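agent> Task received from the user: take the single chain below, predict its 3D structure, and emit C-alpha cells. No templates, no multimer pairing.
agent> Plan: (1) validate residues, (2) run structure prediction, (3) serialize to C-alpha cells, (4) report one or two observations.
agent> Step 1 OK, no nonstandard residues flagged.
tool_call: predict_structure(input=
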Amino acid sequence: MEMRRYQDVAESTAIAWTDATFNPWIGCTKISPGCDHCYAEALDKRHRWQGASHWGVGAPRMRTSAANWRKPLTWQKHAENGLLPDGKTPRHGRRPRVFCASLADVFDNQAPDEWRRDLWDLIELTPGLDWLLLTKRIGNAVRMLRTHDWAASTRWNVWLGATIVNQEEADRDIPKLIATPARVRFVSYEPALGPVDWTRFKGIDWLIIGGESTQGAKAREFPVYLARNSLRAARRIGAAPFIKQLGSNVIDRNDAGFEGDGDDYWPAGTADKVEHNPSGYLEEHQGAPVRVHLHDRAGADPAEWPERLRVREFPV
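)
tool_result: status=success, residues=316
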C-alpha cells in the first residue's frame, strides 16, 4: 500500500490526522477504560450546551445546528475547486479527510436512528470528502451503516475506525472491524493503556498511536516502548503507522545497554535521564523507568521525539 508522509499535509484542525472535524450531535456514554478521562465529556460539562449534560445512560444527545450541518457541503465545494476544507490550502490532488463526531459516537445506541440516516445522506452528498468514522462501538457498525448501498459504490468515501486501548479490546473488536465493509479500516490506539500484539491481525490499513494528554485528570503513563513496538508491528502487517502524540506522562527506560542507533536518541535538552540520552542515564538505575519531560503539553511535537518515532503516514 502506498504511504504519504504527514509533513506534506496542511491542516485546519488541531487533530493531526484530519483536515476538518464535524460533529452531527453531542453526547455519549463511557464504555471503555479509554473513556475514563474523556475530553469531550469535560467540554460538555464546561459548556452545558442547551443547559444540560449529554453524557451517560439516559442523558439526551444534542443535535448540532442546521448551519453546522451545512458546513460539509461547503467543504465539498472547496474540494471540487482543489482546496482543503479551510478554503485556502491546495489539496494537491489528495482527498480531504473529515473526522466525524469528536464529541460523540456515531454508533451510540442512544443517538436517534433518524440522525444517523441524515448523516449517511450528508456523506453521500459529499463524495469529494473522505469521512473518518471512529467508534468504541464497532459491533454496532454493521447494522447501523448503510453498508449494502455504499459497498457497491465506486464513490464510497467512508473510513471506519475502532478505538483500541489494550489487548482485550483488540481481541474483541478488531475482528468486527475487519468484517465490516469500509474503504479504509483503521485503529486508534489512543490512549495506549497496555501492549497489543498487532501481528495477530491482518486487514488493518492504518494504525494511529498516541499517549493520553492531561485534560483535567492527570494523564496515565505512556511507556514509549508501546510506540516502538506498534511501529514495528504496523510495518509487518502492512498498516500505515501514524504516531500522533506521546501524551503528557511519557515514560522511558534508563538503560545504558539499549541496543539501538542514533535514530533512537532523544533530542538534546528534551529528555532527562533516559536511555537514549548518552550523558543523562544513571548507571545505578539502569533499566528503571524514568519520566521524559517534553515541552509540548500533549507530547505532540515530533521535533521533541527520537527521530525513529517521527512517523506520520496515511493509507492512500
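agent> Step 4: summary for the user.
Residues 66-80 form the longest helix (15 residues).
agent> Done.
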